[in-house]
Design goal:
The radius of gyration is 19 Å and the shape is elongated. With about 210 residues, it is of the alpha+beta class. It contains four helices and eleven strands.
């Protein structure tokens, strides 16, 4: 399996364009009113680019990742950030450049050993979907923690990358998201919802 390296940048001062991945670099163009992030493809073939930005002090916060196909020898705008007045602004970003558009579900967790495609990620982990004010969700999370079960909590309010990938995975399977009852679980790709008996469910979760 090809290993892709995920690049983290903590940005604060001038416009930069540093490391290159599969012929692609992220170019930052900072003006007084807008900070623009471009994907520059110097390769001879198209590249699919995944960009995730976490920003502070900007009018628009980039909570959702952006995926765009970048033609060869071209530069495409990926994200526009508008800084707030009288506020210190900063952001970090993560990007992945892939040679195959359909394989862009690439993510890395803390101290990973390899990158995984979207399906591989979903089908190798236990995800528990929760929401604020869901007492049953809180109870389930507490029971899983007490039994030291391995899982990732996915808060649907935050809409982080795990949420986005899981939703895409469910949509590809034909799941109707408007009928989902929380808490919902994806146990290594198996959809479980509703969860009528929490105790039985916790016992079924692998260590």
């Amino acid at each position: 399996m090809r290993v892709f390296f995920l690049l983290y940048f903590i940005l604060g001062i001038a416009s930069v364009s540093i490391a290159q991945q599969n012929g692609v670099t992220i170019v930052e163009k900072k003006g007084p009113k807008r900070h623009l992030l471009y994907a520059k493809n110097d390769a001879d073939a198209s590249r699919s680019v995944f960009l995730k930005v976490v920003a502070s002090g900007y009018r628009r916060r980039a909570d959702r990742p952006v995926i765009k196909l970048i033609p060869p020898k071209s530069e495409v705008l990926m994200m526009t950030l508008i800084p707030l007045r009288d506020t210190i602004s900063s952001y970090t970003y993560i990007y992945v450049a892939n040679t195959e558009e359909e394989n862009l579900g690439i993510i890395r967790e803390k101290n990973p050993t390899e990158s995984l495609g979207m399906n591989d990620f979903i089908e190798s982990r236990n995800l528990i979907f929760t929401n604020n004010g869901c007492d049953k969700c809180d109870l389930l999370i507490g029971m899983l923690q007490e039994k030291r079960k391995t899982f990732r909590k996915v808060d649907i309010r935050e809409k982080d990358w795990a949420f986005d990938y899981a939703v895409r995975y469910l949509e590809n399977r034909g799941e109707k998201l408007d009928t989902i009852a929380l808490p919902m679980a994806l146990l290594k790709g198996k959809v479980i919802q509703p969860i009528p008996d929490l105790s039985s469910f916790v016992r079924a979760v692998e260590e």
